[in-house]
């Protein structure tokens, strides 16, 4: 029941948006929600694996740029969204057991216990608002598995997921690098520019992790750039085969109370 237009969604305050998500009134992706507010990826692991996952995030800051980490059992991310409920305030979740995807629920109350630690990881959709404000011309394609190896930490290891954007000119591409560099907590600068095949992506028109728009062909004059993506922990979860890991479903982000510019480097 997605009854809200992109215009209405973009003008919502995050608290109001999270409320309609909690009530089941919005179940779609969040790219149009809450203009100028930071969005976040979610990864939840048992306390026994939390230190190794924290170390993994610190060693791989571009795909796993940390915004907040909860106390064990806490459902509230005090730093970025006081009073929010991480069990209910995302439109769609993924639940993994021993590396296998077992559920994609609208809330994770039945999976929650006091042993779980939640990590909120920056999302590049956040700095897209800054790109639009600067009139940078670009097209967001989707997310892909790459052959870029992450630095391992304990049981957590694997390859980086990346998101791709197409830019109409070198000026737009340079502005995107400058603007995204001010937002390291939302993945920062690109991890690759140019030929997708170099990082193991064979067909740019077919995102294999998340499709924002189907079948976008690259035009001859367009420059493609790739950013680290917060879906990376999901590929890591499948590799690590830990007993339980809960994440957001790709594109269904947690919207924080923090403004994009508030978190930018001056």
How many separate helices?
A: 6
Tertiary shape: globular
Low-pLDDT parts are none
User: What integer is the average pLDDT?
Assistant: 94
Under CATH at level 1, the class of the largest domain stands as Alpha Beta
Classify the beta-strand content into a percent band: 25-35%
Could you give the order of the helices and strands?
A: HHEHEEEEHEEHEEEHEE
Going by CATH, the homologous superfamily of the largest domain would be PSTPO5379-like
Distance between the terminal alpha carbons, to the nearest Å? 40 Å
Q: What name is given to the CATH topology of the largest domain?
A: PSTPO5379-like
- How is the biggest beta sheet arranged? 7 strands, antiparallel
CATH architecture level-2 label of the largest domain: 3-Layer(aba) Sandwich
Category from helices, strands and their pairing: alpha+beta
Give me the count of strands: 12
Instruction: Tell me the count of domains.
Output: 2
Q: What percent of the residues sit in helical stretches (DSSP H or I)?
A: 10-25%
